[in-house]
Design goal:
The chain has 194 residues and is of the alpha/beta class. Helix content is 23%, strand content 32%. The protein contains four helices and twelve strands; from the N terminus they run βααββββββαβββαββ. A nine-stranded mixed sheet has the order 6-5-4-7-8-9-10-11-12, with helices on one face.
């Protein structure tokens, strides 16, 4: 019999409908509940139910984490790594700024723009390389800024392989003690300018 519900994780106001859970903890379908919660509340990053027998249900909840700021003509939007809009107020100077002109977004929606999605994928693949901002250059490219280095990326190739190439180039130049001013990855062979 389900007697106790324990909430663990981020500070989230959780209200449990005990009638939906039923009385028998053994027959509780937690996978289905997890899917329903994630679909209904897009700001939740993960939710996990576990049974602590004989009578306790543990719910672990974590919110999505701010990852980048999308700056558009319509406003600024805080995004997580998957492109879900978390907020429309920007207050953290440490987040990467993505400058792309797209239509207004609502909190909880997922950005569908291919340039923004590719930029987020690139940011997730660059490892220890610090990127401050990314923006549209033209229909064929995206420009990323890392310190005094401008990095040009294609909008059509595999962005993760370009990130791996960038890591190799930057590692080689760090060994020499200097970084280039331009790294252009839009072509088959990278072009590096001092």
């Amino acid at each position: 019999v389900l007697r106790r519900i324990e909430i663990v994780g981020d500070l989230v106001d959780v209200q449990v409908d005990r009638e939906r859970l039923g009385q028998n903890i053994l027959f509780l379908q937690t996978d289905k509940l997890e899917e329903e919660l994630l679909a209904a509340y897009p700001l939740i990053g993960s939710v996990k139910f576990s049974k602590s027998l004989p009578s306790t249900l543990v719910i672990r909840v974590s919110l999505r984490v701010p990852y980048a700021v999308l700056v558009t003509q319509a406003g600024e939007y805080v995004l997580d790594k998957d492109g879900v809009v978390l907020d429309s107020k920007y207050s953290n100077a440490n987040l990467v700024q993505l400058h792309f002109d797209i239509p207004p977004l609502s909190i909880g929606s997922r950005v569908g723009d291919a340039r923004v999605r590719r930029s987020l994928a690139f940011l997730g693949s660059v490892g220890a390389i610090t990127i401050e901002s990314m923006r549209d250059t033209d229909s064929a490219g995206i420009q990323a800024a890392s310190g005094h280095t401008s990095i040009f990326l294609p909008q059509s190739d595999d962005i993760r392989s370009k990130a791996a190439t960038l890591q190799t180039i930057v590692a080689g130049f760090r060994i020499k003690g200097t970084l280039p001013t331009v790294i252009d990855l839009r072509f088959e062979k990278p072009i590096v300018t001092y």
